[in-house]
Amino acid sequence: MLKLPRMGQIFFLVAVGAWGVLEIYLHVFRRGDIAPGGYGRPGVVERLSKSVMLAAFAFAGFGARLLTPDFAAGFRLPFTPVRWVGATLVFASVPLRILSVVHLGGAYSVDLGVRPGQPLVTSGLYRFVRHPGYLSLIVAFAGVGLAFWHWLATPLCLLLPPGVLAWRMLLEERILERNYGEEYRAWARRTKRLVPFVV
Question: pLDDT of 68-126, one tens digit each?
């Protein structure tokens, strides 16, 4: 007989569902009309980084489920305080992601690049950090890793997404510096990448 999931699993699945719907919306409806600002041939590195990023995200989220037979049984166990913290982090990442997109307004796109005449956004969340959207993804995957609390799934979620997002951030910063010059460099000097006053 099929057992219903416990409250922790329900809360986690609702949080992941909200996050997933948001990401699908952004990738389908907020792609933007910019020319990718990659290096070498235009857009090649940008497209490569996006493919690597999506592959890393998929492996972080599903790798343990595919590779280890004990994952499903472990996920069905009652949620511990650590797992509840993880599910809450996933839930909290959604408004952070929404705010980062709202503050960028028309400048937001899932593709790296700058539209002609597009101003550098340094207000809202961007007064404090340069990549709040990437921070929201790191928080979400950290939450997923803690909610799984599995010997393979947790390190995959804690290590893979931040690694590929660090590369993506560097590419984006090079594009911004190339387009905005000293205005970008001045903003970079007074802000941190992800966490105010820390990193």
Answer: 999 999 999 999 999 999 999 999 999 999 999 999 998 898 888 888 889 999 999 99
Rounded CA gap, 48 and 53, in Å?
A: 8
**Is residue 89 classed exposed, middle or buried when 0-12, 13-18 and 19+ CB atoms within 10 A define those classes?**
buried
| Domain boundary assignment for the chain | 7-22+69-107, 151-199
Nearest to 177 by CA among 130, 136, 125: 130
Evaluate if pTM is beyond 0.85. Answer: yes
- Give SS3 for 195: coil
Task: Note whether 131 and 169 are within 8 A (CB).
Answer: yes
CA–CA distance, 198 with 4 (Å, rounded to integer) = 42
